[in-house]
Design brief:
With 394 residues, the chain is of the alpha/beta class. It is built from 12 helices and 14 strands. The protein starts with 8 loop residues before the first helix and ends with a helix.
Length: 394
């Protein structure tokens, strides 16, 4: 026979504090009355937790609510966003984008750092110096947490980055430099997984606990969210759909290369080649920006543009069907440069073709987290880590 365990007073206080702090984070300044209404806690309990949180420096009075009301009930309490600061990185082969933000996730400063070729022996140190300089200009002396989104596999057991392609050496060197920052936690995550978190929390899948983000850009990947949790797999490789064997390519992928896999159907080079086959103007380089431009322009390109989008949607649906018949996510979000450029027009075409390939009902949506989805996901991830530390969240 088991008996129910009653929360101790200290545990109850910690739970109440977390509840109030999260409400202040999500909804902004609130009065004690509003906190009582939202939490269902008693007047003395709310008064006690507000006093306690003010002593810790996490909450402060920032004004009053209403013109006619004065006194304790009118006081507005807010999270002290400057209590901790975070940084977020989107690391690509050609450079880095970074954001410095406060505890509430508000952007304080940004920087773009291009890297030519394979970089130099000083690239990682220079990027780290730029981060610290950017933070100081924003008035930030210490970073509590830095979240880094990078291409490749992130081993769940070791936290190490394993390349599935030819990533430049400075990627690993940058992580080593960041991990030497005193008092700063560094979180490494696959870039597409971070974009998936952004779509889940602030983007197209806010109403979904189960969905798959298909990232369509220079390369191809997926983030899998099941029952509200990001799934990484045994080796961190969940979502490496660029290696997915599919019909329509000239060969099969290998352990060393995704050539011949789904990447060869819908990667940026393939999209530019498809556009030229439909007599649409496309840059021969086939980079993500060129593919994005041709997809964005296709709806205004008449019948040729429509045929191009139809064939592109057919290709995307092949990969989506392979994922859906295994996971049955009920929703696929098209992200990355191509998903963003195609918007609802491309998503609708993919959904109709997917319905013919799979017996499972699946909605297809265009991503709404935007071009900064990786950075947005990194900010959310770093913020979650700070709250676990400061708020005592499990």
């Amino acid at each position: 026979m088991t008996t129910a365990r009653t929360a101790t007073p200290s545990t109850a206080r910690a739970i109440n504090d977390r509840l109030a702090l999260n409400l202040l984070l999500e909804q902004g300044p609130l009065t004690a009355t509003e906190l009582r209404d939202l939490t269902g806690l008693s007047r003395p309990t709310v008064a006690d937790l507000l006093e306690r949180l003010q002593r810790t420096g996490l909450v402060a009075v920032v004004g009053e609510r209403g013109e006619q009301r004065r006194g304790p009930n009118a006081r507005l309490y807010a999270l002290v966003a400057s209590r901790a600061h975070i940084a977020a990185f989107d690391v690509r082969a050609g450079g880095v984008s970074l954001v410095v933000a406060d505890l509430a996730g508000h952007t304080l400063a940004t920087a773009e750092i291009p890297v030519e070729g394979d970089g130099t022996p000083d690239t990682a140190a220079a990027i780290t110096a730029t981060l610290l300089r950017t933070a100081r200009v924003a008035g930030v002396e210490r970073l509590h947490t830095v979240a880094v989104g990078a291409p490749g596999l992130v081993d769940p057991a070791t936290g190490r980055l394993q390349s599935t392609g030819n990533l430049p050496a400075w990627h690993a060197e940058l992580l080593a430099e960041l991990r030497r920052l005193p008092g700063t936690e560094v979180i490494l995550e696959n870039e597409v997984n971070l974009a998936g978190r952004a779509e889940h929390r602030v983007g197209a899948a806010r109403d979904r606990d189960t969905f798959v983000l298909m990232w369509l850009g220079h390369s191809v990947g997926a983030a899998v969210i099941l029952d509200g949790r990001l799934r990484r797999g045994f080796s961190g490789g969940t979502g490496e759909i660029c290696f997915l064997p599919v019909p329509g390519t000239v060969g099969l992928p290998s352990a060393d290369s995704c050539e011949g896999g789904f990447h060869d159907l819908v990667g940026s080079v393939a999209i530019c080649e498809l556009a030229r086959a439909h007599q649409l103007p496309a840059a021969p380089a086939g980079d993500a920006s060129a593919a994005e431009a041709v997809v964005r322009a296709a709806p205004q390109a008449g019948e040729a543009g429509g045929r191009f989008l139809d064939e592109l949607a057919e290709r995307i649906a092949i990969g989506a069907a392979s994922v859906c018949v295994v996971l049955d996510p009920g929703c696929v979000v098209l992200g990355g440069e191509i998903g963003r450029a195609g918007g609802a027009e491309l998503a609708g075409r993919v959904e109709r073709r997917l319905a013919r390939l799979s017996p499972l009902s699946t909605e297809v949506r265009a991503g709404t987290a935007g071009g900064g989805a990786v950075l947005a996901g990194a900010v959310l991830t770093a913020g979650d880590a700070v709250r676990r530390d400061l708020f005592g969240e499990p």
